[in-house]
């Protein structure tokens, strides 16, 4: 009788192990895809008109020479809760877009978060740039440009220079 009970337990354990192995073999692994972009408007699941708030790698004194940008920049529209980037599952694939500066001079292809020194608001909306992700901590206000006016290039305050993590409509 004891032999039959032991055999039943061994048989049940073997069946359970075989079932687990079968699940593992048939399981589809999660995939990850990571891209870099210079604008949140290039992210497929974000809807926006165009990039209005430009964040530049250098201070304004070093950003433009003879009317041309000599530093790298990124541009964003709307609320961006984390300049690190954004992620979303597309089926079984986790797709991530990391925000970087463009390839124009100083800061080319560097990650955007905590690397900007100046801001240019070329949009019709007011913005705030924040120290922390999720719109927290010290912030700086940037007024929209006047109709038909120039985009004003402004240095970030010392608390935010190279310590910028998010932006929000103001």
Residue fraction in strands: 25-35%
| Helix percentage range | 10-25%
Number of helices: 2
Secondary structure: number of strands: 12
Radius of gyration: 25 Å
Q: Unreliable stretches, pLDDT < 50, 5 or more residues?
A: 18-27
Principal-axes geometry comes out as globular
**What string, H for helix and E for strand, traces the elements in order?**
HEEHEEEEEEEEEE
Spatial strand arrangement across the major sheet:
5-2-8-11
Mean pLDDT: 86
Helix vs. strand class = alpha+beta
Can you describe this structure?
- The structure is a single chain.
- This protein has 170 residues and is of the alpha+beta class.
- It has 2 helices and 12 strands; from the N terminus they run H-E-E-H-E-E-E-E-E-E-E-E-E-E.
- The chain has helices spanning 2-26, 60-63; strands spanning 31-37, 53-56, 64-65, 68-69, 73-76, 85-90, 93-99, 118-121, 127-132, 136-142, 152-155, 166-169.
- The strands form 4 sheets. A 4-stranded antiparallel sheet has the order 5-2-8-11, with no helix packed on it.
- The chain is globular.
- Residues 18-27 have low confidence and may be disordered.
